[in-house]
## 1
Amino acid sequence: MIQNFDRMHGLPDGFFDITTANIRSLFPNPTLIQLDGQDNNFLFISILLHGNEYTGLKVMQRLLAKYADKLPRSILLFVGNVQAAEANLRRLPEQVDFNRCWPGSLMEPCPTSNMMRRIIEIAHGLPLFAAIDVHNNTGRNPHYACITDPNLRNQNLAASFNRTAMVYNHKGVCTMAFNDICPAVTLECGLPGDETGIEHACRFIEDLLTLQQIPEEALSRESLHLVESHLNLHIAEHVSYDFDPAADVDLCFEKDIEARNFTLMDTQQVFGYTRVDRPISIIDTNGHDVTDEVLRIEQGKIFFNQTLMPAMITRDKLVIQQDCLCHLLQDYLPHHDVEF
Ligand SMILES: [Zn+2]
């Protein structure tokens, strides 16, 4: 079984007027749209893999309005989880996460992963210049790119978005499915709809429409600070929590915890407070629980056992339940072996 998706050649009328709330009036199903441009090396762009992350839609509306009939480069645009977008949710409760089920995923094959496999087959059948997956964060974060393969092309592509970029290894993300096919990055463009994020992604993609070649030069740490994510931090089920140290709950954090995003925390800085034994679980990219190696609790205070950089901290309880509270980053080291 494969999940239904539609294919279009050219933009449907009304594309520039839709919002996520009425997106299914144009795109009742996930939709792959081929847009022909002068240079036939396609840019693959995926938007709305997470339904409430609508910056990608705004970016494509703005860019395609500008380049209406004279697109410098062909685009293959995948409009992802329209059902969740309509409901302004990352995904519907009964759905799998649209950015965890691409080829390379560890999950059991399902209609949605079969659809993603087919999308990759179609894209792979075309000459591809690069693949860009546009996302938002649910917390306050700088804009940054994520790459799953830290080869030099991907590094250069990431560095042209921001000087800090993340190497990540979550199985089944869209960007990973393009490894060995073409350069690929995930763009994290701040909060959904944030104007600076829309503008930033527009400029980035616009440059790719006319760029002849993605550079392959080695970059200094000043040009690109690469960090990596091996660890996801989850709040254990049935643990009550709040973002207020005075709250009467099992686990609490400072109100401004989002200010910790992309800052290093050493082994003596307090990450949170708890009155229960195991309020948090930390899972590595292989799915192993490494909580006891990574953190310790002393007199109700939570500390990390080594310097780590929290990122993508969210205070949105639904996202915390469906995804995680945050990721824990370290400086990327080539051929770095995970020690946890
Ligand atoms: Zn996302």
## 2
Amino acid sequence: MTTQNTVREAGILGTGHYVPEKVLTNRDFEKILDTTDEWIYSRTGMKERRIAAPEQATSDLCIEAGRRAIEDSGLQPDQIGLIIVATVTPDHLVPATAPIVQHALGCVNSGAFDVEAACSGFVTGLSVAQGLIGNGTLDNVLVIGGECMSRILDYEDRASCILFGDGSGAAVVSSTATRGRILQSFVGADGSGSHTMQVMAGGSRRPADIAAVQEKMHLLTIKGNDVFKFAVSTFRRLLEQQMRDFDFGPDGLGLVVPHQVNYRIIESALKKLDIPEEKIFMNLEKYGNTSGASVGIALDEAIRQKRPQEGQYLSLIAFGAGLTWASALLRW
Ligand SMILES: CC(C)(COP(=O)(O)OP(=O)(O)OC[C@H]1O[C@@H](n2cnc3c(N)ncnc32)[C@H](O)[C@@H]1OP(=O)(O)O)[C@@H](O)C(=O)NCCC(=O)NCCS
């Protein structure tokens, strides 16, 4: 599904992010797992990640990031017409997390729903927002990616638990924004790869009964090597498509804010595309992979560091469980 040439323009009016205070370092993992700081850093680029406090749920992280994004936008909460929360770790199966966030933020004129597109969730939300603003249905949409990944990780599985962290990133997408115009967005999927990253129990196919929990089926499993190959080729393909569709090369590209999955994945794709390292924004050293939150957090940090400069092409690219992928090309 591609959304482009819409009637009205949609851009980024404000952004914000929130990460919990607790830091879990690679050295902390050395105490509980057969692993080393050196192994984790050299294979992933990650040094530490944030972990939500026991009393915090995903909505709490989203509320804070959403509040910051609304403040940054200069809008009042009652001017938001829709809140989209992208998450694989909702507070509950029912209700969705977005209405909880909507109520807490006082967005009394807003609809609210969740998007479950895993690590592609935040960029998928931006694409939905672009479409609804473009066709005149809405003026202002708050897109939030938020995750408590620590709640679905198996901390005895060294191949998966070291990869993820908790956090939330948000953006107000608006018809009145003068920067960050979304020129094109794209979402895609290939469900034949649905087995590569899964939480098996807790849904309608396998409720989380005692046996399922004993077998840890309520926790995340990943086939890291399969995902690695998919991630490299998808990242490359989506970026190439943007450059082709808008007729620019590595020199014309301003900045890429990719899903913060693994430094080696991004590096490998960039080398093939001949794009220099300084054109990529990475923060996974501090936060690990925060799934649906990762592009939202990175986008907010990149903007605050004045990384995308006026007039530049800003590329957002994400991919993850499903398998799913999403991209957006913005003019900053
Ligand atoms: C997970 C990932 C870092 C593994 O890196 P890798 O270089 O491919 O490593 P491999 O999976 O080939 O494992 C190599 C060895 O390291 C071991 N290993 C795995 N995790 C380890 C850890 N934390 N510490 C030490 N050794 C570890 C494996 O058991 C394996 O040992 P073996 O050869 O004796 O079987 C990498 O594949 C990756 O990032 N994949 C994508 C991650 C992902 O799915 N993210 C979410 C999707 S958006």
## 3
Amino acid sequence: MKIKKYSIPESTVIYKPKSPFIARVISTTALTEAESSDEVRNIILDVSGSGIHYIEGQSIGIIPPGERETGKSHKARLYSIASARTGDDGSSTTATICVKRVYNEDNMAEAKVPGIASNYLCDLKPGDSVALIGPNGRRFLLPDDDSTDLILIAVGTGIAPFRAFIRHIFLEKGFWNGRIRLFYGIKNAMEALFLNDQNDDIGQYMTQETFEAFRALSRVHNEDEEKGYVQHKLAEHKQEVWEMICRGNFAVYICGLKGMEEGVDEVFTTLAKQQGLDWPTMKAKFIKKGQWNTEVY
Ligand SMILES: Cc1cc2nc3c(=O)[nH]c(=O)nc-3n(C[C@H](O)[C@H](O)[C@H](O)COP(=O)(O)OP(=O)(O)OC[C@H]3O[C@@H](n4cnc5c(N)ncnc54)[C@H](O)[C@@H]3O)c2cc1C
């Protein structure tokens, strides 16, 4: 039987590409440091008057202005909502997204080609209008049962829905009885979104008894830091992670770039094999039950 997840409010209005909601940018701030090789921005949108009631784990679509070469409008790009349902100001009229400025690596091109939507979004200024669709997503949602152990695995901007989860749990709801373990892979400490000195939106809740977060840095700059990917952090904590899986009352969420799934699967394949179990069979069952949730792009 499927585990029961949070319900999407029936009252929410869902916008479609033909008639998007025009939101307004309230603020846009860099989440990465100036010296960082990547730029990720935290963009807060005003959705007041839209009738949108999103919940944690959902995404919104943004339609960049202009047309494709075919003369058709640009397609919408999805962005995970990084705020909990009441928004970052508690007014229930805002939605936060965190957007990485992306360049398409074309070996043949002399210059890097800017990604359409991410560069459009990262260049927006407060007061600008944005065509928005959604909210979308019915699966990547928290379980109803708060004694469920949560295993959250993210790389880069994949942290966005987990910021929403954590803020909902500790700020809006106030507690979670199950254990919450966040494994987060980034290039270096400058890109540790929501887990750094300037913005500790997630890190601040590590004082909570049930919550622990582990960071993996893939490019280290000094000897004190250990180099590794998110799957290495997961493997370091394999005993507890496997115990959660065996206990049975768990939900795993994986979010970020597509390539991350392989490393995560390797860890679980090894763990299962040690018990004489077949990971693909187990995983298929967990997916069916809503216990294994993936949102990669
Ligand atoms: C469910 C879902 C949630 C998403 N949430 C977020 C989010 O919270 N934050 C966010 O920044 N993006 C998110 N994305 C990705 C986003 O939708 C766009 O694909 C991304 O911003 C690139 O769009 P673009 O128009 O700038 O690039 P395009 O002009 O469409 O070019 C796409 C190219 O960019 C590459 N690309 C896409 N994302 C990245 C990345 N992060 N790093 C490196 N290369 C990339 C693609 O592989 C492709 O080559 C999400 C995607 C999905 C499906």
## 4
Amino acid sequence: MRRESKYFQKLGQELIKAAKQQDQYDLDTINLIAPASPTPMKYFYNLPLKHNAIAEGLLENRPYAGVEGFNRIERIAAEAACKLFGAEHANVQPHSVSQANQAVYQALLNYGDKVLAMRFDAGGHLTHGMSRNFSGIFYNFNFYGVDENGWLDYEEIERKALEFKPKLIVCGASSYPRIIEFDKLAKISRRVGACLMADLSHPAGLIVAKRFPQPFPHCDVVTLTLDKTMLGPHGGIVLCKSDLSQKIDKAIHPGVQSSVPLRRIYQMAQCLIDCSLPWFNDYINQVIRNIKIFEQKFNQYPGLVVTGGSDTHLMVLNTFKVFGLTGMEAEKLLESLGILTNRQVIPGEILKPYVASGIRLGTSWITARGYSEEETGFIADIILQNLADPTNTSLQMESKDNLKKLLKIKRKNDVWCE
Ligand SMILES: Cc1ncc(COP(=O)(O)O)c(C=O)c1O
């Protein structure tokens, strides 16, 4: 018994040490992982809500006593989400976007129904029909890709839709760097009698700042999260037209989940209200100015930037074609300097997905930490120099030092540390 308590004491110490190390690591690295963004500390500390209440059931319809406060908070979050995204109905309960997508499929489809979605190598997500994901296991997915330059080809999507006759068309992606023309996809969906769903986890913040097309009224259902370009907590949101609201709500509860922590709903409401303020538009505009700097710098190497650039917060580089480095090698080389990216399959991928031909980078995190064009250009130069000369150890040491100096500078508009 005594030995056990020592064991757990040691585990507790280890836990604190690991958390502190991770915190320090986050401060000591340049994070260019596209979905990464530092959630402002104000969403975690000094909450007026002290208790971690959990409640089961849908808004206004819970099989519990004492839930009026819970309803009020969730109502505010749902109302703010509708207002920001122009939706008629919002459900903020899903624990994640994977779960939100699961609920949408459950609401709109029967087992084995046909769905047309974006292929994984073109930028689609696991939950858009990957064979080993629940989506690919339970439903009959077929895919559209991108043209030889990496762009969505709406005529090709229409041809596929007419041939396959899906019940649902899914758009939205994890690594597609261009805008999505929802109006065109809505026309195709109507022509084949399908519903249109958009998974907008990535460009959510750009939609709020009106730097990306508005999904409504074109889409029937939208799923998204606040933890990528909205600088908020993790979790999923489903937005839809009012005629689908009951089906969607029931698919979330009791369909795929039971209870929800109120603190997360509170933090989501806080984030949604915050993102309606002018600072958020300024933030997104800077995210885009920073990606344009990447575009300019990386385009010094023809063929490096998939689609030749980006309209969003992210871009994909074909490192294998230009530098002979797999995505895995490029990711590890940059990680050794203190720059975080992720290996990324590219359209028409020829390598195994775990190795991949490219890397994906985004500007959400660095912008939130207060970096503007000058620092972004500096980082891009370091990336290019090292990818072009991957065995130059003195260059690596110099780059590491320069990045450390950059990280030491405190910025007044750093949302993370404010
Ligand atoms: C397009 C897209 N959909 C869904 C998800 C899954 O989100 P979650 O991790 O919240 O389940 C991601 C995550 O990166 C994503 O990029």
